[in-house]
Write a structure and sequence with these properties.
Nucleotidyltransferase, domain 5; Dna Ligase, domain 1; binds magnesium ion; 412 residues; binds adenosine-5'-triphosphate; 6-stranded mixed sheet; single chain; alpha/beta; globular; 5-stranded mixed sheet
Length: 412
């Protein structure tokens, strides 16, 4: 039992999912603990009720501890919500010794962060996209090279400092230190994208309950990230309004009878449901239901398309879109996405997992499982019998030491 352990807490709008896994070999994970709980106090990916959110986090952690038999003291935590923003930036430094070392790379990355970031924002990720040495671009690993001027292209993701602090407090109140925050779409991408897709140019789109999370990968690197505040809950509330049903009823019929393409449904197809304040159950045409769903889903994909166009990378995505998240399970989503966006689209879910995986092989758990792979990538492992409270949460404070450590892990 001395293999390293990775822990992730995916704090979604509809569910909280804590996963504990053992790292086996270099890249394999065995899921040892699972804690899935309905989430409370979270809207559109942001905490709106600290106590309620913290309690549901604690319940999820508790379940994962019970199933794994391990104590959870620190974890990677997913982050989403309208308060996240990203910029691409370039850092430049002079090289004094003539040969580039890790410290130079860290200084270059630090200088990339000197872009005007307001005080009320916290840096979540600084992702290096490529280096330029003495004007020559396309360099992936400059350490050891000769040169006088080192430039780094970096993708910087920031979030509202208060949003981040609230989330950190909630997780801490559940007895767990946040070792690092990970933006939702980056976690999902770790699970659903192939290396070929990343190289070719691809967008990952995770449609959950309250948010739609996007990340664009080109030439193997992250070029753009975005979180939109729309998701499956909006589809449900449209159905509730349109058919005069309660939200739980609308949610149930969406899952049982929903389809995102009206034209795919025959005129005669119908189901029965008892509407608000009605004595007798009524017959509803599935076509009418699909009509409501299609309108909303089309709007979501149009927003996504707008966002991709705004990023300026719309012509650079030959591998198209990889759809995931709970809402990608709605029949017809793939076709509608492809039609609205004019891109090839596939739906993806976590695969090749071992251990306690019964519930996890659904697109709803791409972010949850992705956190574990992200932990693996960052070597954020926890010793098995770790004592409580000795790990500090500080993944987001990008000081020089931390940066150097970060780089050592990533560089070959
Ligand atoms: N079979 C299904 N058909 C249609 N929608 C579904 C189905 N299963 C789940 N959903 C929808 O997926 C959504 C939840 O997805 P997911 O679990 O990915 O969200 P989340 O991670 O909790 O939220 P977010 O990431 O947006 O904060 C809900 O809106 C739910 O209605
Ligand atoms: Mg989610």
């Amino acid at each position: 039992m001395d293999e390293p352990i990775v822990v992730g807490i995916d704090i979604g709008t509809t569910k909280i999912c804590t996963l504990v896994a053992r790292v086996e070999g270099e890249h394999n994970l065995r899921i040892l603990g699972v804690g899935i709980e309905p989430s409370q106090g979270i809207k559109k990916g942001t905490i709106v009720d600290l106590a309620a959110a913290s309690q549901s986090i604690a319940r999820s952690v508790e379940k994962a501890q019970r199933t794994s038999g391990l104590e959870i003291t620190s974890a990677l935590v997913s982050l989403a919500g309208a308060n996240v923003a990203s910029v691409n930036s370039r850092g430049v430094v002079g090289i004094t010794g003539g040969v580039i070392d890790e410290e130079d790379v860290a200084r270059a990355l630090e200088s990339a962060q000197a872009v005007a970031i307001p005080h009320n924002r916290e840096i979540i990720h600084v992702i290096q996209r490529g280096f330029i040495v003495d004007g020559q671009d396309g360099i992936r690993s400059p350490v050891g090279m000769h040169g006088y001027r080192l430039e780094v292209e970096a993708h910087i993701i920031t979030a509202s400092a208060s949003t981040v602090e609230n989330l950190r407090q909630c997780v801490q109140a559940a007895g767990v230190e946040v070792s690092q925050f990970v933006l939702n779409p980056l976690a999902s991408a770790e699970v659903v994208l192939s290396e070929t897709e990343r190289q070719m140019g691809v967008v990952v789109c995770d449609i959950g309950g309250g948010t739609t999370d996007l990340a664009i990968y080109i030439d193997g690197d992250i070029w753009h990230t975005m979180v939109l505040a729309v998701g499956g809950n909006h589809i449900t509330s449209d159905i509730a309004h349109g058919l005069r049903l309660s939200l739980p009823q609308a949610e149930d019929i969406k899952k049982a009878n929903g389809h995102a393409v009206e034209a795919e449904i025959g005129e005669e197809e119908a189901f029965t449901v008892r509407a608000f304040g009605e004595e007798r159950p009524m017959q509803v045409s599935r076509k009418e239901l699909a009509h409501i769903i299609e309108a909303r889903v089309e709007e979501v994909f149009e927003l996504v398309l707008q966002e991709i166009k705004r990023s300026g990378y719309d012509g650079l995505l030959p591998a198209g879109m990889v759809l995931t998240g709970g809402s990608s399970q709605l029949p017809g989503m793939r076709a509608l996405a492809s039609q609205t966006m004019g891109l090839p689209v596939r739906v993806a879910r976590p695969e090749n997992l071992v251990g306690l995986i019964d519930q996890l092989n659904s697109p709803a758990f791409s972010t949850s499982v992705g956190l574990l792979y992200w932990a693996l990538l960052m070597s954020e492992t926890v010793p098995v019998h770790h004592s409580r409270g000795s790990r500090k949460g500080g993944g987001s404070s990008m000081d020089l030491e931390k940066l150097k450590e970060f780089l050592k892990r990533l560089l070959p």
